[in-house]
Amino acid sequence: MVPVQTSAKVELSDDYKGYELEYFCVPRHYEDSLECVLIPSGLIQDRIERLARDVAADLGREPFAALCVLKGGYKFLADLLEKIKQCYRFSSENSVPFSVDFIRLQSYKDDHSTGDVKVLGVDGLSFLQNKNVLVVEDIIDTGKTMKVLLEILEKQKPKSVKVASLFVKRTSSSSGLRPDYVGFEIPDRFIVGYALDYNV
After folding, report:
1. What are 1's strand-pairing partners?
2. Which listed residue, of 45, 62, 117, 193, carries a Cα 20 to 30 Å from 110's Cα?
């Protein structure tokens, strides 16, 4: 089964098997833990370039604030912003100003959800007032934490808020939240790589 391209995302079916490990260089610390390579690096980079074009087209010449959700979102943010800058560089003489801030969301204590989401890493979010905000997240599982973050951000009265997530899991416990920019919709499987790690 091959990935299905839709206008908004690349969707991997539940029976998608990925690629055999023997075709790739896999870090030693993953060798005994992986079943397959779900999405090769080159495909991820191509998809991020497409998302960057979409973001640049939607924002036009408007400045924006990129808000990265740590820890896993940093690699996606760096690659996405580099490709957004390339879009502007090749389409006009002037660059579009943007700022970058990092936050952490805490909704778990030990391995249990507290049901309460805390935003860590910035001294308040009032600097987002009247700004176009691009929230960058690595993966959205149920979407419940992101929904709470969006409610928190709306209280700051931004000009606009868009969410970009490299991966969105198809899960029965989904809140129904759909990011504005989705790289890949994947089956409800545990994934690692591309700054998504475990046991760290």
Report:
1. none
2. 193
Residue 160: name the closest of 64, 61, 57, 55 by CA: 64
Sequence-distant (6+) residues with CB within 8 A of 116 are: 107
In degrees and rounded to multiples of 5, residue 66 shows phi and psi of -90, 125
Per-residue pLDDT of the chain (200 residues; tens, 9 = 90+): 344 444 467 899 989 999 999 999 888 888 888 899 999 999 999 999 999 999 999 998 899 999 999 888 899 999 999 999 998 887 766 778 899 999 887 766 654 555 677 777 666 788 999 999 999 999 988 888 899 889 989 999 999 999 999 999 988 877 788 899 999 999 988 888 877 765 44
d(CA 48, CA 200): 26
Catalytically active residues are 141
* Cα(120)–Cα(60) distance, integer angstroms: 30
Distance between CA atoms of residues 157 and 51, nearest Å = 25
Q: What is the CA radius of gyration of the chain?
A: 17
Coil, strand, or helix at residue 94?
coil
Would you call 145 helix, strand, or coil by DSSP? helix
Q: Phi first, then psi: what are they for 42, rounded to 5°? A: -60, -40
The 8-class DSSP code of residue 128 comes to G
Enter the tokens of residue 129: 């007032």
The position carrying tokens 């309460």 is 116
